[in-house]
Amino acid sequence: MPSISVARRSFLVVVSGPSGAGKSTVVDRVLKRSSRLVASVSITTRPPRGEERDGVDYFFVARDEFERRRDAGAFLEWAEVHGNLYGTPAAFVSRTLDEGMSVILEIDVQGGMLVRDRHPEAVLIFIMPPGLEALRERLRGRATDEDEIIRRRLEGAARELSFYGRYDYIVVNDDIERCADDCAAIIRAEGLRRERASL
């Protein structure tokens, strides 16, 4: 009997949630669990935090440079969050998908909604903190933000949480490994969907 070969189409994965929900840590662990998934590195106008490295965690640029790229149509999506601009480089995403790799985007809910509008086939995962008090403690534990920034992030969390109903999946991050396992399982299952396969 001849073997059957199934080609799988690559796709976009969006991970969103309020600041302090653990998105970056979850995405890092999900990437270690998948060989067919690549992270898109966002471009931002905010300064680096802690040990963040340019080109690894973000591409850090001046506001006028960001605006020049935005006006040239270089972003798949962009948003202003807590006074800073963030954008996803469209050329990288398009090239990576064409090469057969799926792309994971860790972006704000504003960006998530733009991706949903432009790429309805994208898979949207919302990382939910176990509670607002846990969120407050995580933000304070970072020791990288001033009290005023933490206060603004907590206020923004209520607005961000209101978007959860527009996401495909909700995963509560009360245990980082379990949360990463759940997200990786979602992505694996989505990759096996009939509409992403061709014989």
Can you describe this structure?
The chain is an alpha/beta fold. 40% of the residues lie in helices and 22% in strands. The chain has seven helices and eleven strands. The chain has helices spanning 23-32, 63-71, 90-98, 109-118, 132-142, 147-161, 176-191, and strands spanning 7-8, 12-16, 37-39, 43-44, 59-60, 75-81, 84-89, 102-106, 123-128, 169-172, 197-198. The chain has a five-stranded parallel sheet with strand order 3-8-2-9-10, sandwiched between helices. The chain has a four-stranded mixed sheet with strand order 5-4-7-6. A hairpin with a 2-residue loop joins strand 6 (75-81) and strand 7. The longest helix is centred in the C-terminal third of the chain and has 16 residues, at 176-191. The chain starts with 6 loop residues before the first strand and ends with a strand. The mean pLDDT is 89.
Task: Describe what is shown at a glance.
The chain has seven helices and eleven strands. It has 199 residues and is an alpha/beta fold. Helix 1 (23-32) crosses helix 7 (176-191) and helix 5 runs antiparallel to helix 6 (147-161).
Itemize the secondary structure elements and their pairings:
Blueprint lengths: L6 E2 L3 E5 L6 H10 L4 E3 L3 E2 L14 E2 L2 H9 L3 E7 L2 E6 H9 L3 E5 L2 H10 L4 E6 L3 H11 L4 H15 L7 E4 L3 H16 L5 E2 L1
Parallel strand pairs: 2-8, 2-9, 3-8, 4-5, 9-10
Antiparallel strand pairs: 1-11, 4-7, 6-7
Helix pairs in contact: 1-7, 5-6
Descriptive tags:
199 residues, alpha/beta, five-stranded parallel β-sheet, four-stranded mixed β-sheet, 11 strands, globular
